[in-house]
Amino acid sequence: MSVTLFLPPQACTNAKADLPVWRVDDEDCQVLPFISAIPLSPETWRLVLPVEAVTVCAVHLPQTRPNLVQKALPYAVEEHLIEEVELFHLCVGQKLPDGRHSVFAVRKTWLEEWIGLCTHNPPHEIAVDADLLPGEGTRLLCMGNRWLVGIEREIRLVIGAEGWAELSEHCPRPRHAYWENKRPAPGTIESGQQVLQPLAWLAKQKPGTNLAIGPYARQEPGKKLGSWTYITWTLAVTVAILWTSNLAQALYLQYQGDRYAQANEEIYRRLFPQDLKIINLRAQFDEHLSQAQSNRQGSFLKALDVVATAITQERARIDIRQLDFKAQSQSLAIQLQAPDFATLERLKSRLHRQGHPVSMDSANREARGVTASMIIEAPHEK
Questions:
Q1: Helix or strand or coil: residue 158?
Q2: Which pTM value belongs to this model?
Q3: Looking at 170, 192, 216, which one is the last position of a domain?
Q4: For the residues of 189-217, what is the DSSP string, one character each?
Q5: What's in the GO CC field (predicted)?
Q6: Are residues 201 and 60 in the same domain?
Q7: What was the pLDDT predicted at 210?
Q8: Using CA atoms, how far apart are residues 107 and 304, in angstroms rounded to an integer?
């Protein structure tokens, strides 16, 4: 982080744009009104909250999926809070050696007020000052009469200078302290280190738990459009898939159509080899069908005229019960009823004399006469 803003304990009441805060930029530390200390350019910066405004506790959380952890978090933390848990923004910190997790709770309205003052350039990270203390065991940072204490990544608190003597007896070792130059070292410690600028030193430490998550996370311009970008890409991919599918289907149908057209042309050439040139297969085929239909009708009427003339010349009554004309063989099958066999024989002989071969399939005598099936073929060409 290039710029870090430290809110003082006075910020715990409410958000004030003119409240003096510490602005740390590398080794440069200065006190400015909050609204003036916010970086104007969109450079990365961090807002550090006073531990007095944050509740830190350790709870057991289910070792399952993150969404289940978020659902269980309010129930696990509510017994550590005086007010309703819905009023707090909750963040899960590091996992402790005993399996518990540290949790940070800060009032939503208070945090929203401070973030609302820097809408032109919201913080990239939100931390707690006491959570920036490094190392294991007990860590102590002495800044005037305000001393930050961190114990085993579980406890984060602030005490006055006079309270260390009593608290130190209950703190695990090693107890390591950091204090300003030209000030005496605190008592009851195993090791210590003088720092020139306590806040500048604290700003350089490894980041602790980031509270800028969920609705309090910084929304980058690109990320604001993230959901729309995803939707746009999804629609684009869907359209591409549909277009590709339709194109593939069209090509397949065209291929099948070409195959059918080629097969139809081969069949047509076998049926009508006399057609050397095919311009419009459908029209030419319809023309052949029309000609064939006309030929069949003419042959049928001609055969029927022959039978009718022969029957008319016979004096006896002959009834036609059924007709069946076969165009391919140019033959006419008729079922007749005559008074007797002699009549049928005379009709057969008359048709023979006219050049029409006739054959009798069957003949039966009935109460009203004789019934026979007769096949009359077309005359043979000479």
A1: strand
A2: 0.58
A3: 216
A4: -SEEEEES-HHHHHHTSPP------GGGS
A5: Gram-negative-bacterium-type cell wall; plasma membrane; type II protein secretion system complex
A6: yes
A7: 92
A8: 109
Instruction: Report the DSSP pairing between strands 101-107 and 88-95.
Output: antiparallel
88 domain residue, yes or no: yes
Question: In the listed set 216, 236, 256, which residue is the last one of a domain according to the structure?
Answer: 216
Quick check: is 70 in a domain? Answer: yes
| Domain CATH code at residue 144 | 3.30.420
Distance, C-alpha 243 to centroid of its chain:
17
- Specify if 57 maps to a domain: yes
- Do 122 and 14 share a structural domain? yes
Strand partners, 105: 55, 90
**H-only helix segments in the chain:** 34-37, 66-77, 108-116, 164-167, 198-203, 221-224, 226-271, 281-313, 341-353
Question: Residue 93 has which token pair?
Answer: 């910190």
Q: What is the pLDDT of residue 153?
A: 80
Residue 206: partners with Cβ closer than 8 Å, 6 or more residues away? 132, 134
Cα–Cα distance, 20 to 7 (Å, whole number): 8
User: Which pair of structure tokens corresponds to residue 180?
Assistant: 């300003």
Both tokens of 246, joined, read 């339709």
- Is 221 a member of any domain? no
User: Are 360 and 348 within 8 A, CB to CB?
Assistant: yes
CA distance 178 to 91: 27
- Do 178 and 314 reside in the same domain of the chain? no
Instruction: Give me the domain span that covers residue 291.
Output: 282-377
